[in-house]
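discrete fold record:
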Amino acid sequence: MIALDDVLVTAYSPDPDGGADRVVRLLGPVTLELAERRIAIVGANGSGKSTLARLLNGLVLPSSGTVRVDDLDTARDGAAVRRRVGFMFTDPDAQLVMPTPVEDVALSLRRLPLTSTERDVAARAALARLGLADRAEVPVHALSGGQRQLLALASVLATEPAVLVCDEPTTLLDLRWRGVVDRLLDDLDQQVITVTHDLDAALRAQRVLVIDDGAVVFDGDPADGVASYRALMQVPT
């Protein structure tokens, strides 16, 4: 389980007039226990929802308070936390670094005690699981946007994390690929925590968090959460 205890995230903001830097609150204080299998996080751009997501596997560390994953502290046990919590970015190009899909997935497996042959076999199996077996040797830049997002997901899932955190995983995809990725995420055995602007996806979660101005302003039932977010944004149903 992921637990946040009185977590505050701040940053320094330069004074445009040349004065002393200001401390800006990005998120918090937040206290949460995240145990449900499917959790959606919604909020306006700049509200702090991506900061919250990045706290969950130590990509962002709290300025004060603690984030713990199965009793591991993200500030002290970062490597162990990241073995348990995989992270999927909005733009797959932010995490794809190798020339071909099979090489990229194999790279994510280097931290496991596998031979190069075993990594290759495991990488190809991970690609096949997501329907990319016939794209294993294709240059990554030749893949479509949807295929690159599937490759990014394959690279994360290959290491078998217990939790998957997704930061707007379908924002850059067309309607067809959005449906493909949504179905794959819905069917995973892992706990999946998703930052999303897709309110239909949020409604399929078991729990919705609404973030506004760095604070959790709603936490609970998905239908009520989406209604709360629409009211906050003054969006008619």
Summary: The domain at 2-233 is CATH 3.40.50.300 (Rossmann fold).
